[in-house]
Fold this sequence. Notes:
Number of strands: 0
Order of helices and strands: HHHHHHHH
Largest sheet: none
Strand content: under 5%
Oligomer: single chain
Helix content: over 70%
Amino acid sequence: LAKQIFLVSLPLALSNLLQVLFNMSDVAVVGRFAGSTALGAVGSTSILVSLFTGFLIGLSGGINVLVARFYGARHEHDVEKTVHSAAIVSLIAGVALLFIGLLGSPFMLRLLNTKDDLLPGAILYLRVYFLGMPALALYNFGNAVFSSIGDTKKPLIYLSLAGALNIVLNLFFVIVCRLSVVGVALASAI
């Protein structure tokens, strides 16, 4: 049983870790190619990105438990109802986070005592980054559903591909297009 638990949970843990690493790749690219102000601006958002990503991961944990429970009991109707309800809740949560990020970024960053010279870049980064929150919420929903039926590999593969695309787009937007903070945020949202 320990081996099975490990084989199912390892891809799930790696998926959660990869989500947090998206922001770290943004920091690495702007730090190397866009300068110290861009690095400080993106770096100052890490706690908020982790907080809201963690919220979506937690929401998916609840979805996972309910779907797994009904799936294991072979209650197909309850699985269907749960999946449909969870998709709607996830989408609403993603849209709510989108608006929280768009409207609340200045307040949250000031609350964290972000330096004045970093504030414009940090606000811009968060606002663009949060455009991807509905998609991130739906990814976490899908991850939860797949994981609840024992398939933790597909979400890891999807997220790994998205992570590779994120790094390529980070480099393209920052080096080629010279978009700096906006470029890495856009790459993450995509």
